[in-house]
Design a protein that fits this description.
alpha/beta; Rossmann fold; Helicase, Ruva Protein, domain 3; 4 domains; five-stranded parallel sheet; 20 helices; 16 strands; about 15% strand; binds adenosine-5'-triphosphate; binds magnesium ion; ATP-binding; transcription regulation
Length: about 450
């Protein structure tokens, strides 16, 4: 990388001149800066590939504090920095290396040593960038596709894009398998915190007595079983995102402990009196009806208010008919690759059956159904038989045999309750006339709005 740009940061004009000559003759581009303000501005604007930073500015020739302060300001730029220190100030050099500098050179410098160090650092910086690009490629390759074409998903998509980059707490609601966990991942990936970790905590899976230790960590000896220090989830997720899955199953007795850290942003590691500050973005998910739990006094209202700054409700798959075929196709590709088969196509009647199914297990159920179908299919077409999903025939089998009159009464009661007692609505669902329904309501003594 010989056409690299190097920032020479030194307050001594003679030194800048000498370095400029040396580096230009080696084919490098140079820019110069003479004080801390100039250094940060030039580094930010010109984005040099490397910085040579003098540590002994005239205002403060001995301690090098000013140099260390500049180093700290430059750190977020991720540019390799080689320190130039006065001969004998090895202490300062070490401190600088600890703060992220990549190498140091003693003044007066040995030309060859200096040039070698520059070359080496530029090489490894390029390599690092390549690795970073590679890692990103890997992560996008591994990230699961997010399909959302259905009308019921469009408003959600718009909201997700809007709120993901903010730090707003998000509560994701939806039936089992509707994509709550995947959406949490997606929000994290679209956020400013994407380079920091996303830490998931399944609230239903933590034993009550380990709850605090799990979330806040503990010090060795904090309680009988605490044999080692333990880092809590809040700390693991520092600067990143914390995902509380199945938040609805958090026992009432533990809710105040969570509430406190959400209200104050502060917590203590068990066994330590030092207060820690939480820096996490919170996403939670549940398939429970939290408002209902609040009414039943099983979930604290104040905790709910902390979690539900933004609420996203994922629709069940049966309300995302347009997404069924694309989702099924993406699962066919996935499982065909997994089982090393050529991807078969869904037959027209198979697609029809997929669209008629009720999908109580939503997208997860669809994924299982397709996995099985891929395994069962050896031709180039997936037939309805390979789907093995409950057809209407099985639904008929599920009906309990009972006197016709009892079944009739139950059906009418159900229709009336779904329609909030509106006779004309219920009559439509049952496909009988309003008068026919009135007669039966009187007969079975079912109340209705008149
Ligand atoms: N929009 C989507 N596009 C593609 N695949 C999806 C989508 N949403 C969910 N999936 C897939 O469906 C499956 C279930 O999703 P996920 O685990 O996120 O659901 P969930 O709502 O968290 O379920 P649970 O309630 O059981 O926790 C996963 O395999 C996931 O990758
Ligand atoms: Mg989940």
């Amino acid at each position: 990388m010989s056409n690299a740009t190097i920032l020479i940061a030194d307050d001594d004009e003679d030194i800048r001149l000498a370095l400029n000559l040396l580096l230009s003759s080696e084919g490098y581009q140079t820019v110069e800066a003479s004080n801390s303000k100039e250094i940060t501005i030039t580094a930010n604007n010109q984005k040099p590939d490397l910085i040579l930073l003098d540590m002994n500015f005239s205002r403060d020739t001995t301690s090098g504090q000013e140099g260390l302060a500049i180093l700290e300001q430059l750190a977020p730029l991720n540019i390799p920095i080689i320190l130039m220190t006065a001969w004998g100030s090895i202490e300062l050099a070490v401190q600088g290396l600890r703060q992220g500098a990549v190498d140091f050179i003693e003044k007066p410098w040995n030309k060859l040593k200096l040039l070698n160090s520059i070359k080496q650092q530029l090489n490894s910086a390029t390599l690092n960038q390549q690795n970073q690009g590679y890692r990103q490629l890997l992560s996008t390759e591994h990230s699961k596709p997010w399909l959302a074409q259905a009308k019921s998903m469009q408003a959600i998509e718009a909201i997700v894009e809007q709120i993901a980059p903010t730090d707003a707490n998000v509560l994701i609601l939806g039936e089992n398998g509707t994509g709550k966990s995947l959406l949490a991942e997606r929000i994290h990936q679209l956020s400013q915190r994407k380079h920091a970790p996303l830490i998931s905590v399944n609230m239903a899976a933590i034993p009550d007595n380990l709850f605090e230790s799990e979330l806040f960590g503990h010090q060795k000896g904090a309680f009988t079983d605490a044999k080692q220090n333990r880092v809590g989830r809040f700390q693991l997720a520092d600067k990143g995102t914390l995902f509380f899955d199945e938040i609805g199953s958090l026992p009432l007795s533990l809710q105040p402990k969570l509430l406190r850290v959400l209200e104050t942003g502060q917590y203590e590691v068990l066994g330590s009196s030092q207060t820690q500050t939480a820096n996490v973005r919170l996403i939670s998910a549940t398939n429970a009806d939290l408002n209902n739990l609040v009414q039943e006094q099983a979930f604290r209202q104040d905790l709910l208010y902390r979690l539900n700054t933004m609420v996203i409700t994922l629709p069940p798959l049966r309300e995302r008919l347009e997404d069924i075929e694309p989702l099924a196709n993406s699962f066919i590709d996935k499982f065909s690759a997994k089982y090393q088969k050529t991807a078969a196509k869904l037959s027209e009647s198979a697609i029809k059956q997929l669209k008629q199914h009720q999908w109580p297990g939503n997208i997860r159920e669809l994924s299982h159904v397709i996995e099985r179908a891929v395994l069962l299919t050896s031709s180039d077409e997936i037939s309805p038989q390979a789907l093995l999903i409950e057809s209407n025939q099985n639904q008929v089998n599920a009906v309990t045999l009972q006197p016709l009159e009892v079944a009739e009464q139950q059906l009418i009661e159900k229709a009336m309750s779904v329609c909030n007692g509106q006779v004309s609505e219920a009559a439509k669902i049952l496909e009988i006339s309003r008068n026919a329904l009135y007669r039966r309501l009187e007969k079975f003594n079912i109340s209705y709005e008149s």
